[in-house]
Design brief:
about 325 residues, alpha/beta, TIM Barrel, two-stranded antiparallel sheet, about 45% helix, globular
């Protein structure tokens, strides 16, 4: 298995103006403000992400396609430069497709909405192919709570299957493996592994080989909607059929406080070292090729200690997965 990272906001601080750096340090702006100000510029600097990954002993970078971003504005020349730079440094790439606003309508029961979302995702898949991505990760969409059950859900599920079929074929034609990720419990639908596996099984009946990007941190959010977490929590992986994994996401979650993506080495969520050691065994057994870590900063203190946090987490993860 290879180990990679979606840097999310870990590298954002350097893109702030000197004035905004001082304001963040003084507490006059918060981390979310930092993200909003610099994310388009930081996401566009793919070469820096590749360089940091190489310098910190990682194998892979997943680009964050959450909107806003500038990826659809990349010229063919810029895409070639990125592809060549990543290959020169021995770093593979993937793209997390947009999952909010228009991108969240991939399961919309209205065909006009669904087509708009699928059309947008195709443009991002073309971008991903242009820079040499091996994988793209798709969220299954978001619906209002009153569409999450009964006949409404049947319509939603049928729409998602149509979208995944279309995008899976399109991705394969462009040399990219498409992976479908499970939602958080707060997205109302497609939160459980069996729901994703059922969709993928239907898609595969048509000869389209889409994979499951299992996100265990997303699955842990079930604790905050009154559902149990098994002991040990990684046991859920045993229920996922072999042959579905290629790329998977690794992050933690703190229930009740609803903190996403805390640093894994701090062991303040549900995943302790013994859980991650067992997790590594299970996902390798199930055929995973790549693990993408998705730690993100939430506090000013984390941002100011960014280099130390990344160093400690990388050392911690390498000691487990290598």
């Amino acid at each position: 298995m290879r180990l990679g990272r979606d840097f999310t906001n870990l590298l954002y601080f350097e893109y702030l103006s000197d004035e905004d750096k001082q304001r963040l340090e003084a507490g006059e702006i918060v981390v979310a403000d930092m993200d909003a100000v610099v994310q388009v510029t930081a996401k566009s600097d793919i070469m820096r992400q590749v360089s940091v990954a190489k310098a910190t002993g990682l194998d892979h970078v997943e680009l964050d396609g959450a909107v806003p971003n500038a990826y659809l504005d990349f010229t063919d020349e810029k895409k070639r430069e990125v592809k060549d730079f990543a290959a020169k440094h021995g770093i593979t790439l993937s793209l997390h497709l947009p999952y909010s606003y228009v991108g969240a309508s991939v399961c919309a029961p209205d065909e006009f909405d669904r087509q708009a979302a699928a059309g947008l995702q195709r443009r991002y898949l073309e971008f991903a192919a242009g820079i040499g991505c091996k994988y793209c990760v798709l969220h299954p969409g978001v619906v209002p709570f009153y569409h999450a059950t009964g006949k409404y859900f049947e319509l939603v599920r049928a729409s998602l299957i149509r979208t995944v079929l279309e995008l899976g074929r399109f991705a394969a034609e462009h040399g990219v493996d498409l992976c479908l990720e499970n939602n958080t419990a707060f997205d109302n639908v497609f939160t459980e592994p069996h729901e994703i596996c059922d969709v993928l099984s239907e898609v595969r009946k048509s000869g389209v080989n889409v994979h499951f990007c299992f996100d265990i941190g997303h699955w842990f959010t079930r604790a905050d909607v009154g559902k149990p977490i098994p002991d040990p929590p990684e046991k859920i992986i045993e229920e996922i059929p072999s042959g579905f994994f290629k790329e998977i996401h690794l992050n933690d979650y703190i229930p009740v406080k609803r903190v996403f993506h805390p640093p894994l080495y701090e062991e303040i969520g549900l995943l302790k070292r013994k859980n991650l050691e067992r997790y590594a065994e299970l996902v390798e057994w199930k055929g995973a090729e790549l693990i993408v870590v998705e730690t993100a900063f939430k506090t000013k203190e984390q941002v100011l200690q960014r280099d130390e946090i990344m160093r400690k987490e990388n050392e911690y993860l390498r000691s487990i997965f290598e």
